[in-house]
Amino acid sequence: MAEKGRNTGEGYVLLAPALVVMGLALAAPLLLMAVTSLKDQSGIGFARGWTLDQYALVLGRASYRLLFARSVLISAVVTLVTVALAYPLAYFVAFHARHKFIWLVALTIPFWTSYLLRVFAWKIILGYGGVINSGLMRLHLIDQPLSFLLYNPFAVVVTLAHAWAAFAILPIYVSLEKIDRSLLEAASDLGDGALRRFARITLPLSLPGVIGAAILIFVPTTGDFVTPELVGGTQGTMIANIIEAQFNGVGNWPLGAALSLVSMAMVAVIAGLFVAAARAAARAAR
Amino acid sequence: MKNRGLLFYAFAYLAFLYVPVLVLPVFSFNDSEFIAFPLSGFTTRWYAGLAADSAMQHALGNSLKVGMVTALLATLLGLTAAKAVTRYRLRGAGAALGFISLPLFIPDIVLGLSLLLLLGAARLPLSLAAVVLGHLLVCVPFALTVLIARFEGFDKALEEASADLGEDGWMTFWRVTFPLMLPGIAASLLLTFITSFDEFLVAYFLSGTEATLPVYIWGQLRFPERLPMVLALGALILTGSVALVVLAEYVRNLGVRKPMVGA
Q1: Nearest to A226 among B73, B144, B200 (CB)
Q2: From B73, which residue of chain A is nearest by alpha-carbon distance?
Q3: In chain B, how long is the greatest CA-to-CA distance?
Q4: What ipTM was predicted for this assembly?
Q5: Total structural domains within chain A
Q6: Which residues from chain A sit within 8 angstroms of residue B208, using beta carbons?
Q7: Interface of B with A in 138-167 (CB under 8 A)
Q8: pLDDT digits 0-9 by tens, A228-255
């Protein structure tokens, strides 16, 4: 019985390496980012002294506000669409599929290829001379290629809903799978119809999976760079594209740092509010 | 009736998931630079082009190196941390777990850029080592989740019995804990390797002149005449990943059938 509270020192030694690495690679860089955001770019270096100018710019300029709003809106729509599309599927696999394991494997295989190429595939499919347009023209269903398919927020939503599907399917499936089947039988025995039973038992009990899926999708898609860059066009530009431009092209690191921190804080606040609201709703439903 | 509707929906969804992915292999054998219908004959010249592309192979080598080092380190860090939080009653364990899981809630672009700032401040060059550090951020939370689940999945009494029978901590680890943890370790290695191998944004900022495979692919996307080759590469990555997953599943089943190994 060497363990169980007696040798807590040993426990801390085991925990230390991970904490040191994460401190070095996460805490220190984020601190540095906060410091950088309080500077002014001057040539290839930073000006002396401290300033809140970057934050004034980030929060004050209408074009940045539009960009933040658009990123959040696109991500919210992606989250909603992805979860709504995945739910019936997860429900089917959990309750009605005969070969659950085969379904789960079949649903995850598309995610084992490069994220970059999955996104790029949509550019090929939706493009002006792409798969859909050339196919429809070949079938003489259209005379001119459809130009509204690519380079807009719609293309970003479709692409992200595809790229992140597994992150909705799996958590929702797990929460549905965990539901005690006798609860469903009890509801039926006590006279609930299929719809009422779903609304009163299945849906509330699967909410943790839905909330988890929503967070897993909303947080990373708000900061996604590849998809808006490849299929978004000017109307589909998101916050990450502007941040990247500050570090690559235009070259204003302090502004890029401030944009990064503000978007991070914004995502955290929205995700936190969402979880709190969803929990309150779940409690009210019970 | 309802079930048939759901089944139909499930197949429609499957089609939505597969069609974009199948674009890769289909057009990688298409004998035209233009990725459009109608298909214009079968060719393997794009694959031959890949075989002759030394820059791609160099990037592939870099990605394999980064992926393997990241997977080993992330799993090792995850293993020690998971043992610490599941086998000891530590004050602040929850906070430590929360801190280690934090990168899951931070966009990749912020992780990559903040590391870029750190390298700049420390006057360190961009390198594959920097990419590994960035990938550890993304991968350690995954490894930790998988390994904690495995630690909680087996009976602590087995370790205690080993200690009571006179094994020291190290021998207990090798003869009891490690064999029981093996499926979790394999899952963690696989998950972190694939995550690192596929990661683009962090590597894009930190790799400098040593491109990883996704960074190389990103560079190729600008040249329309190179696209069929990129698709061929995508088809190969898909095949390789599926083979790896099938292999992992096979190994995992081996572990399940012989639960008493080493005990």
Answers
A1: B200
A2: A18
A3: 73
A4: 0.85
A5: 1
A6: none
A7: 140, 144, 159-160, 163-164
A8: 999 998 888 899 999 998 888 667 889 9
